[in-house]
């Protein structure tokens, strides 16, 4: 398989791409006749102006089959006519009564079949012919001794002629699919064969000249009649007559054999605009948001088990014009109708879930009882549309809908708004649905104090469920509806019962309190103040906090599992919670396998290595001498980084199966919040990737990423807290680098106590970790990873692995070690080894780091962290500040990374 995904203008006839991952591939203007894309991932692929269908060999074979079938059919028609005529002739000449009956029954039955097939459905014609034949046989059996024999003979004649007539129709349909001219040629060929057959049969079965002439004449006539019947049926098929759909299905299926195959392919968001799709096979393909605008010959493609099976829907997707058309009950699930003109179209009870109507004209359209789950109406024009009982949910996208007013009942009843037009954003607010709610109905008004008290009680009784008041609506006549939002897995019946009981208890308590406290004016004033305080607390539960300081931090955990070999995708679980609380939101999705991601990262990694000089805190192997300047390497590194970043964001932002997680993040997170994002996975490839380059972090400026493995244990922190931040700083082998700058940075930290070990022996490091509690472990010097084992050079002659310090490090963690900083190269190996000890937090460099970059990051991080900023914000700001060095050291903002034990909350600097 080619490494490139660019195939534009290429001749790909007969090529096999079976099972490949061709996400985003460009096949525009390609010749893909006979190509095999079965079970291929083609999400976002471009097939515009491509030419699909049969290869030349398959075309010739199809013509040959049609000729053979039509010849057989012409001969069969002639055979039936000659035999029937011969029976009648000899009945007259020789007085053979049963032959007359047989011939007559055959001709009458065939006549009935031909007439009815013209005016009725095929099954009606067949049924009526069978009835006429059966009645005739019964009459013959009563009136003639040999009637049963005559009926049997007639039945055989009728069956042969009808069967071959149907085959003839299929044959003509197959050829008309190729060209209509070829259909005419096939018809003429059938008549010629039938005529020759009639002559031959007449010569064989009769010795009488008159009988011979009659047989030939009738043979030619019946052959012509059968041929014209087949031609007529074929023409009706191409008019999309529902009564002849059977013929069309058979003919298209046969003609699509060995054509371009998209069987079981994932064509989500693919583009077939103005492509030729004759003889394609889309059976069981995923066609979500697939663009068929102005595609040609799609009616000649095999479309089993897709929304294209309905000719009306197929035509709509191709033309994108359905003004005043009826699509009642149609399945248009996942259809791409972006920009379509659907004014006054009727979608009553249609399934338009997951479809896209972006920029569509839907004015005066009828969506009564339509299924519109996860449907995209962004920028659609919905003025005067009828939305009676349509089924939408929170995934239905109604942002920036262009709408002056709508009707909630058919026949333009229940206008909203009742007068005037919607203000900007009002339509979305009116129809945004939250399915995870509990509706509390109060018949005699609402006491807010009792509601607040009940909410507190219910929250205490259902601590595993997040509760929030979504809205309070006054319905009139004393009826008030309170909508309480709950999590998806919540027991809504129990919560409703708890609310009802708690509200009644609180209401009775308040009434008793009123009676006791209304005895004096002062008590009444105090009661009023208390009531207002309760009301204020309730409003705070309804309305989001206004100031940034009041907004609690959020924790976002993305758990990425192992690749599912059957589906070829990766399971992902999202959890969102307030800091220190249990997850309040959880959902699952899938990401497609993206092998190109690792390739692009490796290309960037190689280019990055070539930009490094001897200032890196790692012994970089000498590169082969070339004539390429360092400037060229810098340009190559920037270009490869850009390619990786584009692919990473395409993977995360455009993967349809991952969309639910992206939307949940946008729905649940506020850009002004402080957000910790932890990516958990056992996939070592994914752990090393710089997911900070996801555009999500551009939107959420107070968010930063940490990584960790899927397995972890919680470490109980000791109750004794140091008055000062205690730091054990190991300054290891400094050959070729300046670790004294690191020392000067550490010495200037406020409210800290730093112990330095300069090029220590192993025993010194071990003893210090055992003897006293530390808050931070710091290392500066050379480090590297070999066979997934991290090593640090503690002096010029000695290296240490995490395993060699396991007992000492475990002791330090038990005594309160909160953070390890390895301001050295290639720290992922060190971090992954420390993970096994469940250290709370680590900061490492994912790749070799230039000395100047390491010092700049350390200075900026510790300055911000020691001044009270959170660990995550300090890392992000220090990391992003490295951009000022990227003209000399490209992509250094990718290097720092946090390893975070999900069970721990990051510490703040002790400023007491």
UniProtKB/TrEMBL annotation:
Gene3D superfamilies named among the record's database cross-references: E3 ubiquitin-protein ligase SopA
One Pfam family linked to the record: Pentapeptide
Residue spans crossing the bilayer: 60-92, 98-117, 124-142, 148-170, 182-205, 211-233, 245-265
Domain of life, source organism: Bacteria
Residues annotated as domain CHAT: 750-887
Keyword entries, A-Z: Membrane, Transmembrane, Transmembrane helix
Protein name: CHAT domain-containing protein
């Amino acid at each position: 398989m080619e490494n490139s995904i660019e195939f534009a203008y290429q001749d790909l006839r007969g090529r096999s791409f079976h099972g490949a991952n061709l996400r985003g591939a460009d096949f525009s203007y390609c010749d893909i006749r006979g190509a095999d894309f079965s079970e291929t991932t083609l999400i976002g692929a471009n097939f515009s102006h491509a030419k699909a269908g049969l290869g030349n060999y398959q075309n010739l074979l199809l013509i040959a089959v049609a000729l053979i079938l039509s010849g057989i059919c012409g001969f069969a028609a002639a055979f039936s006519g000659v035999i029937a005529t011969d029976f009648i002739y000899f009945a007259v000449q020789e007085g053979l009564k049963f032959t007359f009956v047989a011939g007559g029954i055959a001709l009458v039955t065939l006549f009935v079949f031909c007439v009815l097939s013209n005016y009725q459905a095929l099954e009606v014609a067949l049924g009526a012919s069978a009835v006429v034949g059966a009645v005739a046989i019964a009459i013959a059996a009563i009136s003639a001794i040999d009637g049963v024999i005559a009926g049997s003979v007639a039945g055989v004649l009728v069956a042969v002629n009808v069967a071959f007539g149907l085959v003839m129709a299929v044959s003509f349909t197959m050829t008309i699919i190729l060209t209509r001219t070829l259909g005419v040629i096939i018809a003429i060929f059938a008549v010629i064969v039938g005529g020759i057959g009639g002559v031959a049969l007449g010569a064989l079965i009769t010795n009488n000249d008159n009988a011979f002439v009659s047989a030939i004449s009738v043979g030619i006539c019946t052959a012509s009649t059968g041929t014209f019947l087949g031609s007529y049926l074929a023409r009706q098929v191409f008019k999309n007559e529902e009564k002849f759909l059977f013929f069309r299905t058979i003919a298209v299926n046969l003609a699509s054999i060995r054509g371009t195959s998209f069987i079981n392919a994932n064509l989500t968001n693919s583009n077939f605009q103005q492509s030729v799709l004759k003889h394609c096979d889309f059976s069981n393909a995923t066609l979500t948001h697939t663009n068929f605008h102005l595609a040609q010959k799609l009616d000649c493609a095999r479309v089993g088990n897709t929304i294209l099976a309905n000719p009306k829907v197929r035509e709509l997707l191709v033309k994108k014009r359905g003004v005043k058309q009826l699509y009642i009950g149609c399945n248009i699930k996942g259809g791409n109708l972006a920009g379509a003109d659907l004014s006054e179209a009727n979608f009553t009870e249609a399934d338009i879930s997951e479809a896209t109507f972006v920029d569509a004209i839907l004015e005066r359209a009828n969506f009564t009882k339509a299924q519109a789950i996860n449907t995209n109406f962004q920028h659609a024009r919905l003025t005067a549309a009828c939305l009676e009982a349509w089924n939408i949910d929170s995934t239905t996208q109604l942002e920036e809908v262009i709408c002056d007013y709508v009707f909630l009942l058919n026949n333009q009843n229940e206008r909203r708004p009742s007068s005037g037009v919607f203000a900007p954003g009002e339509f979305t607010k009116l129809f945004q649905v939250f399915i995870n709610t509990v509706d509390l109905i109060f018949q005699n008004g609402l006491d807010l104090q009792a509601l607040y008290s009940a909410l507190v009680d219910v929250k205490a009784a259902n601590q595993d469920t997040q509760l929030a008041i979504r809205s309070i609506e006054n319905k009139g006549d004393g009826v008030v509806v309170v909508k309480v939002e709950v999590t998806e897995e919540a027991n809504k019946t129990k919560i409703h019962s708890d609310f009802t009981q708690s509200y009644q208890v609180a209401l009775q308590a308040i009434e008793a309190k009123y009676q006791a406290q209304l005895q004096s004016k002062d008590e009444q004033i105090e009661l009023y103040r208390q009531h207002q305080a309760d009301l204020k607390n309730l409003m705070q539960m309804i309305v989001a906090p206004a100031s940034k300081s009041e907004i609690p931090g959020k924790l976002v955990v993305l758990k990425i599992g192992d690749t599912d070999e059957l589906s070829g995708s990766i399971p992902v679980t999202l959890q969102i919670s307030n800091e220190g609380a249990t997850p309040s939101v959880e959902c699952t999705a899938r990401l497609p396998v993206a092998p190109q991601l690792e390739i692009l990262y490796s290309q960037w990694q190689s280019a990055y290595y070539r930009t490094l000089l001897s200032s890196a805190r790692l012994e970089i192997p000498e590169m082969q001498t070339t004539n390429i300047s360092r400037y060229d390497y810098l340009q190559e590194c920037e270009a490869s980084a850009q390619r990786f970043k584009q692919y990473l964001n395409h993977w995360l932002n455009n993967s349809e199966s991952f969309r639910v997680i992206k939307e949940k993040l946008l729905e649940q997170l506020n850009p002004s919040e402080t957000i910790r994002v932890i990516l958990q996975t056992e996939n070592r490839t994914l752990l090393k990737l710089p997911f900070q380059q996801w555009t999500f972090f551009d939107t959420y400026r107070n968010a930063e990423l940490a990584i960790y493995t899927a397995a972890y244990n919680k470490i109980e922190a000791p109750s004794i807290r140091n008055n000062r931040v205690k730091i054990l700083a190991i300054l290891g082998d400094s050959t070729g680098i300046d670790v004294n700058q690191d020392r000067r940075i550490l010495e200037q930290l406020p409210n800290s106590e730093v112990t330095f070990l300069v090029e220590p022996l192993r025993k010194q490091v071990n003893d210090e970790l055992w003897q006293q509690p530390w808050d931070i472990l710091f290392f500066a010097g050379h480090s590297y990873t070999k066979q997934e084992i991290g090593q640090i050079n503690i002096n010029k002659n000695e290296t240490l692995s995490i395993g060699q310090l396991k007992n000492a490090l475990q002791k330090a963690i038990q005594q309160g070690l909160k953070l390890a900083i390895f301001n050295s190269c290639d720290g992922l190996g060190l971090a992954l080894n420390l993970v096994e000890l469940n250290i709370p937090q680590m900061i490492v460099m994912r790749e070799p780091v230039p000395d100047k970059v390491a010092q700049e990051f350390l200075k900026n991080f510790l300055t911000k962290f020691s001044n009270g900023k959170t660990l995550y914000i300090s890392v992000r700001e220090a990391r992003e500040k490295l951009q000022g060095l990227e003209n000399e050291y490209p992509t250094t903002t990718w290097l720092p990374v946090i390893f975070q034990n999900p069970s721990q909350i990051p510490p703040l600097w002790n400023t007491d």
